[in-house]
Amino acid sequence: MKRVTTWMAMALLAGVLAACGQPSAFNLPDQEAALATAATGSVEQVFPLEPVVFDAPTGMVNETPNAWFIQFASAPRVKGGSANVQANERALFRSTALAERIAYTERFDFQTLFNGISVNAGPAEIAKLARLPGVTAVFPVEIVSVPETQPMLDPEMATALAMTGADVAQNDLGLTGAGIRVAIMDTGVDYDHPDLGGCFGPGCRVEVGWDFVGNAFNANPGDPAYNPNPVPGSDPDDCNGHGTHVAGIVGASGGVTGVAPEVTFGAYKVFGCAGSTTADIMIAAMEMALEDGMHVLNMSIGSAFSWPQYPTAVAASNLVDAGMVVVASIGNSGANGVYAAGAPGLGEHVIGVASFDNSHVSLSAFTISPDDALIGYGPAAAAPLPPTSGSYPMARTGTTTTADDACAPIADDLTGHVVLIRRGGCTFHAKALNAQDAGAAGVALYNNSAGRFSPTVAGTPAITIPVVAISDVEGALIDGRLAGGDVTMTWTEELLMSENPTGGLISSFSSYGLSPDLALKPDIGAPGGLIRSTYPLEGGAYATISGTSMSAPHVAGGVALLLQARPSLGAHDVRGVLQNSADPKNWWGNPGLGFLDNVHRQGAGMLDIPGAILGTTRVTPAKIAAGEGEVGPFAQTLWIENHGASDVTYALSSVNALSTGGSTFSPGFFLGGASVSFSDTSVTVPAGGSAGVAATINPAAGPDLGQYGGYIVITGDDHSVTRVPYAGFVGDYQAIVAMAPGTFGFPLLAQATSCFRVVDGECILGSYAVPPVSATFDMSDVYNQPAILVHLAHQVQYMEMNILHASDMRPVHPVFHNTNVFEYLPRNATAGGFFAFGWDGSRYHSEMVRGKGSNELFKVVPDGDYVLEVRALKALGNPRNSAHWETWTSPVITIERPAPARPTPVTPPGRR
Questions:
Q1: 501, 496, 509, 494: which is closest to 471 by C-alpha?
Q2: Is the peptide bond before 409 cis (omega within 30 degrees of 0)?
Q3: Are 646 and 719 in contact (CB under 8 A)?
Q4: Residue 854: per-residue pLDDT
Q5: Can you say whether residue 860 is alpha, beta or left, with left for phi > 0 and alpha for psi between -120 and 50 degrees?
Q6: Which one, out of 221, 367, 420, 853, has a CA that is 20 to 30 A from the CA of 865?
């Protein structure tokens, strides 16, 4: 049976709370001592110094997509596909769709990395297109938002380079990335920037590129500036800033120095000046990057909550098979719980990158009276930039213990004051707007946990006063002075280099894995929090931005240095070399305890570029997915290769990282309880030789339905240390409830009631009445058809809706009785999120008879009383095991179509 495949939720790319605590170095002996009880199966919970904040919106959120990929049966070109076969598949598809009177509009045609097309089609049409000959799957075309940028002055990126050893690779090893071609798929690149070469074309740093969309393009239907019509062109100039920042991290040379300052760039612009792009445009850009001969592709964008089977992930993996190293952000959905990693970073051969916070940050500063103490700040996004001069009295609206400071309208007159407001309780926009409405001249937001953060005050109405973010310590200092008297602040041109309390720890926004097929994702991490890099000249030339968007180009630049140093290294080998040499970091929540952060959050750990280049030990596989704990111990043979000049004796050991609990949206943190045994605890490998050692991972006993992980450590008597991360699931994976009720009692029978965005005659963004206005439907249009709203707390492998007679619960046909058949569905972003599945009163019929009219493929059920039975097969579930299915049956749905109009009698001529 062919199946309509995956409805992916939109990626949520907003930054979230900064982590807390003081950084501490990775210390293996301390870690082993701290986790001594964990090896006995303890599931003791540990708590961060400040609570982690997970996103919990209060309303229902419609996360249903609209445009679609159509995948054909034959292989893409990079996998040996035939041009003639592909042409025949398309011809048959188009002719059959025409014969069946199915309305759709083609968008893009893909043949190289993915064999298929993308289309605009309504929900009833896409269900029918999925059943046409040669179609094997249908996926949504995801809408992918460009991450927000937050300009602030900052003098150098040197501290981030030092965190990965890029400075050592440049200064001591003499590596620059020269000769390596790096593709930047993003918002374009400001090639006029002197740090990026100052020109575009042959002989320039930005040598090739293409604009796939035009400046006005915006694929987000919820945006007032929605414009889904791409206008391609040959000029990939950046009018947003994000892509220029990413390119600078990879290879700027001038005011800032990137990781690989002599790489050659390809610029592939897939965003307009603002808003969103679509996944099919991303694949089009991937295919051009391959055609242009790029060695490395950086994608600092993606779709959260995905599967590795999603087209962008598959296409990216196929790029690696074709010889290109692909690096992608794992996502900024750290506030949305586990299994939130995104495509294409989830791709099987793709390097999915997590983010760590920069160790230091250089900030603009203001002073406070009476001693002119410097207070470093970062400007909030979507607010005017602060001035560099001028003095203002300060005021406060709460204290350091006020949980919802300035969340309500402010009664006091704050005219002319810069107002100190504590974070928490409501959005930054709400706090800033309340201060603005009270007459404030500016706002200083301070953290409610340790460290700095990067807020945005985007919203309606717009914020028109400067808003800056300062640390918890600086906020407490100003609060104390205001408690004792008057304080005057003065904006300055001063710059303040500050040690970041969260430096070297995982960034709060960085997404959790694992992949829904329990593959270990993310793969590795790099600096992404508070990174200064190039920015369009029109926007100030330099900016500091946070996100996994910033960590991926650190890895892409590191790959360029590695390929320059080791040009014979294959594309499939690069990720393993990077993982072997990476350095795991301590838990963000209380690093002083010595616990390693979750493997499914940091992967192999911090990128170590010199370690990857100079290391002579290689271990394969470089990561281990241990699967479900219910199955029992997981056995894996590790192959240790010694590429050095002398024999090396290696000792094998293991260390646990923290586990997370069974809740999808708000997982807790627990001591890991896994252990690893080896066939030999030491092995001697001759120079140029290899040896195999059997490792058995004994899964953690708790917390139930949680994720555990750790590291196998291979320590050589040559002082080398090589690590292999492992991760798995605690217990029975299919025990996770997928079709959960969420916060609104899903699933629900509903009815569309309004539409505020129509594309090609179809309502693609609207609202629903729950319960429906009536359970009787005339099926005349989308407003008079039933819809089922389903909330998925976890990814689902397969889903179908069976049509049953309400009177006796029998299927409407012994074989052909279903509608809305999907594969690889994502989980929802929040507990209030849902996917809407409409039913137009038809059912699938025979797939055997083609071309004789729509009744051969689809039949309309007669008027009457029905129920829809929703069946979901859980991730990695066995379809023959009833325990791996979840079922929900709708209330009775009555279909009463209007009677056909009687023809008007015609009187023959000459008669009365």
A1: 501
A2: no
A3: no
A4: 41
A5: beta
A6: 853
| Whole-number pLDDT of residue 92 | 94
Q: Which residue has the higher pLDDT, 437 or 66?
A: 437
d(CA 792, CA 307): 14
568: exposed, middle or buried (Cβ count in 10 Å: 0-12, 13-18, 19+): exposed
What is the pLDDT at residue 757?
Answer: 54
Convert 647-689 into a string of H (helix), E (strand) and C (coil).
Answer: CEEEEEEEEEECEECCCCCCCCEECCCCEEEECCCEEEECCCC
Closest CA to 539 of 285, 297, 822, 248: 248
**pLDDT (tens digit per residue) in 545-581:** 888 999 999 999 999 999 999 999 999 999 999 999 9
pLDDT at 38 over 60: no
Burial of 850-875, coded b for 16+ CB within 10 Å and e otherwise, reads beeeeebbbbebeeeebbbbbbbbbb
CATH topology of domain 364-497: Glucose Oxidase; domain 1 (3.50.30)
d(CA 417, CA 435): 9
Q: Return the C-alpha torsion angle 790, 794, 796, 802, nearest 10.
A: -30
Task: Write down the pTM of the prediction.
Answer: 0.84
Max Cα–Cα distance, the chain, nearest Å? 114
Q: What is the pLDDT of residues 697-718, one digit of tens each?
A: 999 999 999 999 999 999 999 9
SS3 171: helix
Neighbours of 719 (CB within 10 A): 7
pLDDT of residue 770: 83
Which ranges of 11-119 would DSSP assign to H, the alpha helix? 28-34, 83-99
Between 161-165, 455-459, 784-788, the lowest mean confidence (pLDDT) is in: 455-459
- Parallel, antiparallel, or unpaired for β 786-790 and 833-838? antiparallel
Integer angstrom CA distances of residue 295 from 188, 234, 494, 556: 18, 21, 41, 10
| Eight-state DSSP code of residue 811 | B
Residue 478, both tokens: 């100003």
CATH fold label, 66-141: Alpha-Beta Plaits (3.30.70)
pLDDT at 847: 55
Domain boundaries, the chain: 66-141, 364-497, 736-895
